[in-house]
Write a structure and sequence with these properties.
Largest sheet: 4 strands, antiparallel
Number of domains: 1
Helix content: 25-40%
Radius of gyration: 16 Å
Strand content: 15-25%
Structural class: alpha+beta
Number of strands: 4
Distance between the termini: 45 Å
Strand order of the largest sheet: 1-4-3-2
Length: about 130
């Protein structure tokens, strides 16, 4: 008889698959040094994949959240529990911001839950 999986493990596996997909697109984009039609197509595919994965869509100032700067680049961060604005739906979660439209003062991001850890995560302090 098969063991049934918990909903948490199914969700975790789904987020892990999305993380792997984003990483694959980033590797493929990095291999193409110039903006060819192939690279533009990869960016469109990445945007469509994030849309299908129901990643949120919002415009932001990179200075406000330390967001990624280049097209296809990403940042992993923990959303504070008192966060307002577009990220308020992800309060207390670890999310991945992916830049899908770069700009000088305003960028467009896709955001969704991730299994990755933030690079500068502060150490856990005991009470």
């Amino acid at each position: 008889m098969k063991k049934s999986r918990s909903i948490e493990s199914i969700i975790y596996d789904y987020h892990r698959a999305i993380d792997d997909l984003i990483d694959d697109y980033q590797r493929r984009l990095a291999k193409i040094p110039t903006w060819t039609n192939e690279k533009r197509q990869l960016v469109r595919e990445l945007e469509e994949s994030l849309k299908k994965a129901e990643f949120g869509y919002y415009h932001g100032n990179p200075a406000d959240c330390g967001g990624p700067t280049g097209l296809g680049n990403d940042t992993v961060l923990v959303v504070p529990p008192n966060k307002r604005g577009y990220l308020q739906y992800y309060r207390g979660q670890t999310v991945r911001l992916v830049c899908v439209e770069p700009g000088r003062y305003k960028r467009t991001y896709r955001v969704g839950p991730t299994t990755k850890k933030p690079p500068n995560e502060p150490p856990v302090q005991s009470p």
